[in-house]
Amino acid sequence: MTEVLVASTEFIAPVPSQLLVNDETTLVRYTPDDAQLVFDTVEANKAFLRVHEAWAEDFPLEDATQGVKAMSANAEAGKSAPFKIMRDDVYVGSMGMNSRQGTSATMGYWLVEDAQGKGIASMSARRLLKFGFEEWGLTEVRLEIGKQNSRSEQLAKTLGAKLIGPNPDDATKLVWRISKYEQ
Question: What pLDDT was estimated at residue 12?
Answer without folding.
Answer: 63
